[in-house]
Write a structure and sequence with these properties.
The complex is a heterodimer. Chain A is α/β, with parallel strands linked by helices. Chain A is 57% helix and 9% strand. Chain A folds into 3 domains: 85 residues, Up-down Bundle (Four Helix Bundle (Hemerythrin (Met), subunit A)), CATH 1.20.120; 190 residues, 3-Layer(aba) Sandwich (Rossmann fold); 140 residues, Signal recognition particle, SRP54 subunit, M-domain (434 Repressor (Amino-terminal Domain), Orthogonal Bundle). Chain A has 22 helices and 8 strands. In chain A, strands 3-2-4-1-5-6-7-8 form an 8-stranded mixed beta sheet, sandwiched between helices. The longest helix of chain A is centred in the last third of the chain and has 22 residues. Chain B has 2 domains: 87 residues, Four Helix Bundle (Hemerythrin (Met), subunit A) (Up-down Bundle); 200 residues, Rossmann fold (3-Layer(aba) Sandwich), CATH 3.40.50.300. Chain B is built from 13 helices and 10 strands. In chain B, helix 7 packs parallel to helix 8 and helix 11 crosses helix 12. Chain B starts with a helix and ends with a helix. The chains are: A alpha/beta, B alpha/beta. The interface between A and B is large, with 49 and 48 residues.
Chain lengths: 445, 328
């Protein structure tokens, strides 16, 4: 949203450069562009009004300083105010003094509660080593219980379910007893999707909440939601006390105005963001980083954090040394692939690198293509992996047969690998290669 | 304007006339539809009344603009509608006349010109309906309800294809719908090739002389290129198995969706031409104005609306009703 906004502001404020200061008329013109951009991003109307008036106030009479052009200056103010609005520091879950900590998830149909429940369980298990249980309280949607059971298993959580013939409050109460007995650290209660105006179901939600006394009640909101996001948050907030929000489907191209709106209107922090199809594609929501991502700066910090989480430091040092010397082998490459896999899908990782989002428009990082690369390498002998130069025609044929690929694919991988080694050597001599480009090439079909 | 299922669906020549729906029942549908839209009506109606019956100054037009934006109609479509209305007001029209005019503009905005393009074409036998959309927009539910109506309201023989082989328990969910409507559901193991499931379902429909195959697909974000490519492949498989298929591709759009709905419609269309929108979850506080934005920009009409949880609550879309319910 801000790429286009930035350009539009640039042209709107073109004449200002000579004059040196922003007049009220300039600002008004700029604010019209900001207003439109925010509305197109689905930021709630009330929030947009408030936001533009704040930005206007700050921009009025601001001197054009240094090398910034007026457009950049306004963008700067917009960015600062965005970070402010998205909510200062990252907020965290409340943990109960006496386990289990109970987390209640609520939201509209299709917002992604069941998936979020499993992903949250995985995150808690992964980051705190918590033993997590899930309570299957969606007794309405056909097969919702089965979905939670399957996803819960994948996430390594115990799922408490009693089918769909017992009411949700009873299941929730029973699940809490079971979780307490089993000494679980956390119980996540998955509820049915409901419309905020459905009195009967909202009442059920209140009763579930009263029965399990959650330490955290999180509203699950689809990042693609439009102007209605605020009504939903307000209505749910009126029924149960909300502690925070989980934004889902942030891996799409929705501009996520809903995030901004919900935070601004309800004051509830956005705690988690769901960013992909796989269970590990779930992370803490960082307001400052989100604002940066919105501004096209990439989400470098998140990537670093994820990398740190998974990479063994020794391995990393070793890898770096080999990269510099151009000594990287296919074994190292395989290790790299395995490490990346633990971090989530390639596509979601690449999206976080600054500049890559734009570069990769139209470039397809196919996770299946990566599977094929892996298969090819696994079909090589240790000697071949160490020294790909020895791979001649007949070896290629054997590797292709072994990995279920073609000789061409094997040849292509070896060529690309050689190229990568060369570039890495150059990099160590100070010539900057484009890592993103390289990775994109490797993953291309 | 399509109001009943028999108006919405084009059937082969000489097909047995569907059982007409009793008038009382129809009123029931409308009541529900209006109730579903009630929230929108209140908010937008109040704004519009206040605006169109008062002094028509710049601020008044801005209020109207904001009311439409607030209903997710989107900036471009809103600008066009309000500009046209200003023009008419300039010609001397006021109050009631302007409200009627706005209703008309909104009705036109939500649909397309020709009756045929507004219908669901099931003249081929078997006809194949492909249901696509983003995760959580209500594909499986809409597929289940659609099968129910084709089966019970129109008396057609339906085969369901559970081609969402990705989401855990999606197949079971469709099977429940199949049981409810007495429809055969073709499934494959989880993680299997969705194209193969679609292929088998068409085979089965031909072998059992069924009228319609409805294919439920996995939810996919339109930004996931490999999943979109997979959808393209499913479409090709369907086309290879049965010439002319799919005869109808329906995209589910959640009524709560904001301007991203446009991107969804745009990108899905580029992979598999979309013939109509199923606007789901219109019974909440969401306004569904994105339907107007989509029809306005991409000329894709809304064909069905979901206004509740029950199997009866999937309804043929009626643009005039939609627009007047928005305003009255």
């Amino acid at each position: 949203m801000f790429d286009a906004l930035s350009e539009r502001l640039q042209s709107t404020l073109d004449g200002v450069r000579q004059r040196g200061t922003l007049t009220e008329a300039d600002i008004d013109a700029a604010m019209r562009e900001v207003r439109l951009a925010l509305l197109e991003a689905d930021v709630n109307l009330k929030v947009v009004r408030q936001f533009t008036s704040t930005v206007k106030e700050r921009a009025l009479g601001a001197d054009i300083v240094g090398s910034l052009n007026p457009g950049q200056q306004v963008i700067g103010i917009v960015h600062q105010e965005l970070v402010e609005l998205l909510g200062g520091e990252a907020s965290d879950l409340q943990f109960a003094g006496k386990p289990p900590t109970v987390i209640l998830l609520a939201g509209l149909q299709g917002s992604g509660k069941t998936t979020a429940a499993a992903k949250l369980a995985h995150l808690l298990k992964d980051q705190y080593g918590s033993s997590v249980a899930l309570a299957a309280c969606d007794i309405y949607r056909p097969a919702a219980v089965e979905q939670l059971v399957t996803m819960g298993e994948r996430a390594g959580a115990t799922v408490y379910e009693r089918g769909t013939d017992i009411d949700a409050v009873t299941i929730a109460t029973w699940a809490l007893e079971e979780a307490t007995k089993a000494g679980k650290d956390v119980l996540i209660v998955d509820t049915a999707g409901r419309l905020s105006i459905d009195e009967e179901l909202m009442d059920e939600l209140k009763r579930v909440s009263a029965a399990v006394r959650p330490d955290n009640t999180l509203l699950v909101v689809d990042a693609m939601t439009g102007q209605d996001a605020v009504n939903v948050a307000e209505n749910f907030g009126a029924a149960v006390t909300l502690d925070g929000v989980v934004m889902t489907k942030l891996d799409g191209d929705a501009r996520g105005g809903a995030a901004l709106s919900v935070k601004a209107i309800t004051g509830k922090p956005i705690m988690f963001a769901s960013t992909g199809e796989k269970i590990p594609d779930f992370e803490r929501f960082h307001p400052d980083r989100m604002a940066q991502r919105l501004l096209g700066m990439g989400d470098v910090l998140s990537l670093i954090e994820q990398a740190e989480k998974h990479a063994d430091e020794e391995d990393a040092k070793d890898m770096e040394r080999k990269m510099r010397r151009g000594e990287l082998t296919f074994d190292d490459f395989l290790k790299q692939i395995k490490m990346m896999r633990r971090m989530g899908s390639f596509s979601s990782l690449l999206g976080m690198l600054p500049g890559v989002g734009k570069q990769l428009k139209g470039v397809n990082i196919d996770d299946k293509a990566v599977d094929r690369l892996e298969a090819i390498i696994l079909s090589m002998t240790p000697a071949e992996r160490r020294d790909p130069k020895i791979i001649n025609g007949s070896r290629k044929r054997r590797i292709a047969a072994g990995s279920g690929t073609t000789i061409q694919e094997v040849g292509k991988l070896i060529n690309q690998f050689e190229q990568m080694r060369k570039v890495m050597k150059q990099m160590s001599r100070g010539k900057g290669p484009d890592m993103a480009q390289l990775m994109a090439q490797m993953g291309r079909k | 304007m399509a109001r009943d299922w028999s108006d919405l669906v084009l059937l082969p020549e000489g097909a047995s006339a569907p059982t007409p729906v009793a008038p009382e029942q129809r009123r029931g549908f409308f009541k529900r539809f209006r109730e579903g839209l009630g929230r929108t009506r209140e908010a937008l109606g109040a704004e519009v009344r206040a605006t169109l019956f008062d002094t028509l100054d710049a601020e008044a037009w801005e209020r109207l603009e904001e009311a439409l934006i607030g209903a997710d109609v989107g900036a471009p479509a809103t600008a066009r509608i309000v500009a046209r209305l200003e023009e008419i007001a300039g010609g001397g029209a006021t109050g009631e006349a302007l409200t009627d005019e706005l209703t008309k503009l909104l009705a036109q905005g939500a649909t397309v010109a020709t009756e045929e393009a507004r219908a669901i074409d099931l003249r081929a036998r078997p006809s194949v309906i492909l249901v696509v959309g983003v995760n959580g927009t209500g594909k499986t539910t809409s597929t289940g309800k659609l099968a129910h109506h084709l089966r019970t309201t129109l008396g057609l023989k339906v085969v369901l294809a559970a081609a969402d082989t990705f989401r855990a328990a999606a197949v079971e969910q469709l099977q429940v719908w199949g049981e409810r409507s007495g429809t055969e559901v073709i499934t494959g193991p989880e993680g299997s090739d969705p194209g193969a499931v679609a292929f088998q379902a068409i085979d089965r429909a031909i072998a059992t002389d069924a009228d319609v195959v409805v294919i439920d697909t996995a939810g996919r974000l339109h930004t996931q290129d490999q999943l979109m490519a997979e959808l393209g492949k499913i479409r090709r498989v369907i086309g290879n198995r049965l010439e002319g298929a799919p005869h109808e591709t329906l995209l589910t759009i959640d009524a709560t969706t904001g301007q991203n709905g446009l991107r969804q419609a745009e990108i899905f269309s580029s992979v598999t031409p979309v013939d109509g929108i199923v606007l789901t979850k219109l019974d909440g506080t969401a306004k569904g104005g994105i339907a107007i934005a989509i029809a306005d920009k991409l000329k894709i009409p809304v064909k069905l609306v979901g206004v509740g949880e029950g199997v009866e609550d999937l309804r043929p879309f009626d643009a005039d009703d939609f627009a007047s319910a928005l305003l009255k």
